Amino acid sequence: MAQYSDLLLSEETLKAVERMGFTELTEIQEKAIPVMLEGREIIAKAPTGTGKTCAFGVPIMEKIDPSALADARALHADCGRIARACAFSSAGAGRGCIRRAADRQADQRLKARRADRRCNAGPNA
């Protein structure tokens, strides 16, 4: 199996993936990262837990010019807002994943409020 160190990644990225405990590439990472580092676009499908986030995130981080970043936190927040906006405004699997997660959180809050009302309503409710 290929290693992250086999890829042409910056020292910063190699240190970051090492800190996360990653050394070996998963199948999706091995196939996607080199293609994306070449600047080509891909569409990939892989099961949950196979490393898709790193497969797409590592090449993106390699392309970002750190000197152009005024505030990394602001960039992170902006990227999250953009991803959520795109997911909610377009059809596709991403929309479903984010919406399901949001729906699950909303359902959990609603269930908690209902349970709280039942507990506080007293015996005659």
Brief synopsis:
By secondary structure, the chain is mainly α. It is 62% helix and 0% strand. The protein is globular.
Q: Give the helix tally.
A: 5
Largest sheet: none
Order of H and E elements = HHHHH
Radius of gyration: 20 Å
C-alpha end-to-end distance: 62 Å
How would you describe the shape? globular
**Level of helix content?**
55-70%
The protein's oligomeric status is single chain
Folded structure, characterized:
The chain has 125 residues and is mainly alpha-helical. It is 62% helix and 0% strand. The chain contains 5 helices and no strands. It has helices spanning 11-19, 27-37, 52-63, 72-89, 93-120. The chain is globular. Mean pLDDT is 75; it is low at 93-98.
Could you outline the blueprint of secondary structure elements for this entry?
Blueprint: H1 11-19, H2 27-37, H3 52-63, H4 72-89, H5 93-120
Helix pairs in contact: 2-3, 4-5
List keywords for this structure.
mainly alpha, 125 residues, globular, 62% helix
